[in-house]
Structure of Transcriptional regulator, IclR family:
Amino acid sequence: MEHPRSISARKAVQTTTSAGGAQSLDRAATLLILVGRAGPSGARLADLIAETDLTKPTVHRMLTALVRAGLLDQDPQTRRYHLGPEIYVLGTLASVRFGLHPVSMRALTRLSQESGDSAFLSVAHDVYSICLHREDGPYPIKVHSLEAGDRHPLGVGAGSLALLSALPDREVEQIIAANADILAEKYPRYAGSTLLRLVQETRQNGYALNPGMMLPGSWAIGMVIRGENGRPIGALSIGAIEGRLGEKRQQELKKLLRRETDWVEMRLRQLRHGASRSSGR
């Protein structure tokens, strides 16, 4: 007997009445769903053809386009298809009900209002960092080096550098080596031994500093959020124009970031252990 999911998937393709681009979107969405349902083992091309009842050239063409967009990934050894990195980004951005993102919203609001500048939440994914949220404060001049959804190699930017610096030395070296080519090509100011030096400075100072290395005049300061096992799970950062992030103000913002990262870590512990009452803030 044919699996109900296969029948459903086939109907999703066969019954579409839209033409052209709309039909292609329907088919692409069906392929994404089928690959996601395949789980960690991935989906074979032959199975996807059978489940959608589309021709091999059509399925292959769509899968190639989805891989190119980062929505799917193909294992070079098994040739099986898996959900790609951009799916992770979209899913993370959409996860506003549970976890780090919603807990951090109050902290981001306080940081942006008390500093007057822009506050950010970032997380690590593989060897990259992803900005999940940007909260702007009342100061009229904004920095525009980071927006929600932006992805950069770990270490590039204040929040990203805070995440990288919180990892063990061996992992730091592996990540920098994995990103060596893209750092040299697109982020030359971070290439070579520069990131290792920045990691050491971050550990010594207790916070990460981006002194306009991504975008001239756009500075930022960041601090890591740790899970109960001590591993980094996210980072809070504040971005401002260069004139608003002198050494004295860095120390002021460091205190704000420490207060809020401590608060986020506490709230996550409370939620994880089923605490029913809030922290009172």
